[in-house]
Amino acid sequence: MADQESKKNVDMLYELGTLRFIDRSWKQFQIPNNANVTEHIFRVQMIALLLAKMEGIADAAVLGRIALMALFHDVTESRTGDVAFISRQYTERNEVQAAQDMFGDTLFADLAIPLWEEAHKKESLEAKIVKDADNLDCDLELREMEFRGERHVKTFMPTREYVRAEKLYTESAKQLWDEIYEVEPLEWVMKARNRLNSGDWKTKK
């Protein structure tokens, strides 16, 4: 028979699974095919690690902290939801309480809660990198939407340009922002090993 702590751990795992059903709030703005919260968290982790390497961070322990901080940064949205930049003018979310209630009395309590709090204070370099990654994932997704022909993406460009100028903490993030808007979302396809450049379609010299 599972004890209360074991049950709370399993409750947490089920709750984390629901993040894949939570849409990010910009779906309201005629953007129906955006990533869910789980998908967003995954790419934020990868962006954060890339930014850390660009910033010269090589220590595995520090990189691990950044990866974990990125993993935990938005999980409280299972309770608070994702609130858009208009809704934030009318809504208050008790995210601190959500983090404590999600992870309190679980084996993750002493790991997840401090890292979540550090991420949201945005004081340490690691937290600033995670926040930069959080912002840059929005730019990547907007570029993907634009590539799919969603013309209204240009509506958001003044906001994204403001983020580039005023909200990114690291020079590496600013550099990556510029590159995101230079590289087409499917350039990687033709650069990857494929039939045309490496296989049976390759022109023989």
General description of the model:
With 205 residues, the chain is mainly α. The protein has a single domain (4-191), classed as Hypothetical protein af1432 (Orthogonal Bundle). 59% of the residues lie in helices and 0% in strands. The chain contains 10 helices and no strands. It has helices at residues 4-17, 37-54, 60-72, 77-80, 95-103, 109-121, 125-147, 157-167, 171-180, 187-191. The longest helix is centred in the middle third of the chain and has 23 residues, at 125-147. The mean pLDDT is 92.
List keywords for this structure.
205 residues, mainly alpha, Hypothetical protein af1432, 59% helix
Kindly report the name of the CATH homologous superfamily: Hypothetical protein af1432
Helix content percent band: 55-70%
Which regions have little confidence, pLDDT < 50, spanning 5+ residues?
none
What is the CATH C-level name? Answer: Mainly Alpha
What number of structural domains do the residues give? 1
Question: Would you give the CATH topology?
Answer: Hypothetical protein af1432
Report the count of strand segments.
0
Under the CATH scheme, the architecture is: Orthogonal Bundle
